[in-house]
Give the backbone structure.
Amino acid sequence: MRPPARVHRGVPGTRQLAAALLLAALTRVGPALAATLVISVQSPDGHALAGAVVTARPLDGPGKRPPPVRAIVDQVDRAFAPDLLVIPVGSTVEFPNSDSVSHQIYSFSPTKRFKLPLYRGKPYPPVQFDQAGVVTLGCNIHDDMLAYLVVTDAPYFGRTDKSGAWVAEVPRGRYRVSIWHPRMRDAETDLERELTVGDADHAVLTLHLAKALLPAPITYRPHSWDY
């Protein structure tokens, strides 16, 4: 008669061990790794500034550079759509023309100089932006067409909403925050601030422009940064 199989009690199987490790990870008490960063931008008179570009760079290390993206800036009703786009360094942008008329897109900005001769539809390959900076887009046929590309190497970036705020989840540490706006008179370096995201669940910083914004251009179509 074959002896009964020996049972090893107290040694969990693969599934039981995985479940135990997961439970331990979920119940382990320790400091939070991230917190909420809230940046508010206001004009000199105290009004919320919508559409401003905000970047946050860690000071305690290089931070993880965001991966490049493949973006699209279309042309519709003789306007760029979108008219302001923030992208990581190395990203590519496609410029289709969905309009009923031809356009000739160009940039003379030092960050990226290029020109797409007169066209409709989608005849050209995407343009790569491998240097940080601001790119101003225009059309040689329609002078009132205007758009901006903000190319950044900051790990955290975005635009302020209607309340003038930008919110991001970031690791705790020290950061340098800067802003940019198409109608801003202040130098970007004058508006840079450093702050520490510490043990609290969130950190808040309010930036006030020292100078009034440049007048908005007179066009039939308002831009996303005008209000």
